Automatic annotation (TrEMBL):
Tagged with keyword Nucleus: yes
Purpose: Enhances Ca(2+)-mediated inhibition of inositol 1,4,5-triphosphate receptor (ITPR) Ca(2+) release.
SMART domains assigned: Mab-21
Domain named Mab-21-like HhH/H2TH-like: residues: 391-462
Coiled coil: 34-72
Protein name from the UniProt record: Inositol 1,4,5-trisphosphate receptor-interacting protein
UniProt cross-references to Gene3D superfamilies, sorted A to Z: 1.10.1410.40, 3.30.460.90
Signal peptide (from-to): none
Domain of life: Eukaryota
PANTHER family in UniProt: CELL FATE DETERMINING PROTEIN MAB21-RELATED, INOSITOL 1,4,5-TRISPHOSPHATE RECEPTOR-INTERACTING PROTEIN
Keywords, in A-Z order: Cell membrane, Coiled coil, Glycoprotein, Membrane, Nucleus, Signal, Transmembrane, Transmembrane helix
Record InterPro entries: ITPRIP-like, Mab-21_HhH/H2TH-like, MAB21L/cGLR
Main location: membrane
Length: 537
């Protein structure tokens, strides 16, 4: 490019010097006859003009190429500037996340340090005292629990039969047989009051049916914070292509239904309110179900109350079927009769409410309970563990400590269900031979350590959902086995105050454990432990 500019300058200079108009006026003495010289000069001038035009054309082409090159360089500069910005932003965000993680870790460590973290494996738990504690207590409670279960099952059968008689078979829900769940039916309940949890499946009247939409299905529209729940849709005749329309439409006298004879009375579809659905939807509503069930139980008890010499009252208006039975002697038995919807042909149930539900799901979301499979899992281990195994004793000891600590410092987010879940995880991970009665002290420490570690990590996965370690003999449905794990401590992740209170509760429980066990051990020698537990709990 520099060479072209130099050539242009030379041409321009030559043209200027040789141009005739630049000669002074006094040089006009050139002979008029010298026309040949003038012609040559004009010819030379024309050649210079052509050369000049050629050079200008080359310069313009070079300028256009330079502009394209500069434009490309500009685009390249913007591209690499954008890439550099993205890389810089990503690095900064990672630094922020790492800093937040370090802050959260430091905060969690501060929570445990403030509460005086105790290592459960360093706790002094006398082996003989633990063994004597469990033997005497469980022997006495096992005999009484058996009598309580026998009474509850007979009374529940009578009450549900009366409930079916007060319900309208054409318009009311159809009630099935109860299923016993929870600590009383899993043989580890011994604290007062004696509580029995019964689930009662119900189904819609013919020809209606239930459709289920689980959170783990591919087409689910359930929010992520409703993990472990589902929606129940009540379908009416005519919604499905295979349904018969004779009960929901007037077909005229001349029309004959090929599915129903002339003498068959077609059942007319019910309204969403009559089917206990949420307003303006066809989704089953928990509050409507509990209201219907409570009214039905009240009517059913009114029909059979004259047969019994005890009083029955509702413990809570918000929990249908939460009954308190008071005998003339003053003894009290708690019955939780819970209406549920069975998930297809499995032993999983959509539950209207839990007796000790901390995080209740709003309508129309129904939590899914797999308590029957948990009971079956405990039975599975009971057949394979050593004779007189200590797994239920460990759970009884820890739940006893938890209940006593709750009486001292109040309730926390930690529940007996969390403790049972921790035990089931240990049963799945440890060899069966390690659960002999001689190892009870170490297994109690393992259970407390597992709970402490779960609190530190703010994660305690449900033992059934997404757990491939569950034996196939338990027959957990594939949809539950393949689901994503559910964190039972998810509320502790967002609620720092609740988390701190729960950690303090657990640390105090660890600190007081040897004293609490030692305090009630002297009563064992004279058979007075059970009476002491009745008075204190």
């Amino acid at each position: 490019m520099q060479g072209a500019i130099a050539r242009l300058c030379v041409v321009v200079a030559a043209a200027i010097l040789n141009h005739p108009s630049l000669f002074p006026h006094e040089n006009t003495t050139l002979p008029d006859q010298d026309e040949e010289l003038i012609a040559r000069m004009r010819e030379h001038e024309a050649r210079l003009e052509m050369e000049k035009a050629k050079l200008e054309k080359e310069l313009s082409q070079m300028d256009s190429k330079q502009e394209e090159t500069s434009l490309q360089e500009g685009y390249s500069w913007y591209f690499w500037s954008t890439v550099s910005f993205i890389i810089f932003f990503t690095i900064e965000m990672c630094r922020v996340d790492l800093a937040d993680g370090e802050v959260r870790q430091v905060e969690e460590e501060e929570v445990f340090s403030e509460s005086g973290s105790i290592n459960p494996r360093m706790m002094v738990l006398d082996k003989d005292i633990l063994s004597n504690f469990c033997d005497k207590c469980t022997y006495t409670s096992a005999h009484e629990n058996w009598r309580v279960r026998e009474f509850v099952e007979g009374f529940a059968d009578d009450l549900l039969e009366s409930l079916r008689s007060v319900c309208n078979r054409d318009t009311d829900m159809e009630v099935g047989d109860f299923v016993g769940i929870g600590s009383m039916f899993e043989s580890w309940k011994f604290c007062k009051p004696l509580t029995c949890d019964l689930i009662v499946p119900f189904s819609p009247p013919d020809p209606h049916s239930f459709q289920y939409h689980l959170w783990c299905s591919s087409s689910s529209d359930i929010p992520p914070d409703m993990q472990g729940s589902g929606k129940i849709k009540v379908t009416t005749p005519g919604e499905n292509s295979g349904g018969c329309l004779c009960g929901s439409a007037n077909l005229g006298e001349d029309m004959l239904c090929l599915l129903h004879g002339r003498n068959d009375t077609p059942k007319v579809s019910l309204s969403p309110d009559e089917l206990l659905c949420s307003r303006d939807t066809n989704c089953l509503a928990k509050d409507q179900v509990m209201k219907w069930f409570q009214i039905s139980v009240t009517k059913a008890w009114g029909r059979i109350s004259h047969k019994y010499d005890f009083d029955v009252t509702f413990r809570s208006l918000d929990a249908a079927g939460a009954l308190k039975i008071r005998f003339p002697s003053g003894k009290i038995i708690i019955m939780n009769i819970i209406p549920v919807v069975q998930l297809e042909d499995t032993d999983a149930y959509f539950v209207s409410h839990f007796p000790s539900d901390v995080d209740s799901f709003p309508d129309p979301y129904w939590p899914l309970s797999v308590a029957v499979y948990e009971r079956n899992l405990l039975k599975h281990f009971s057949k394979r563990l050593p004779k007189h195994s200590c797994h239920l004793h460990c759970l009884q000891i820890v739940t006893f400590l938890h209940k006593k600590q709750s009486g001292l410092t109040g309730k926390s987010a930690l529940t007996n269900y969390h403790l049972k879940t921790a035990l089931l995880h240990l049963l799945l991970s440890k060899k069966t031979i390690t659960w002999s009665i001689e190892s009870m002290q170490h297994r109690v420490q393992d259970l407390l350590s597992f709970v402490q570690r779960s609190l530190q990590e703010k994660r305690l996965n449900h033992v059934m959902f997404g757990n491939t370690k569950v034996p196939e003999e338990v027959q957990v449905p594939e949809m539950i086995r393949r689901a994503e794990p559910i964190n039972l401590f998810r509320t502790l992740v967002l609620q720092r105050e609740l988390y701190a209170a729960t950690v303090r509760h657990f640390q105090e429980m660890l600190r007081n454990a040897p004293v609490l066990i030692q305090e009630y051990t002297p009563y064992l020698s004279n058979g007075g432990l059970h009476h002491s537990l009745d008075e204190s709990l």
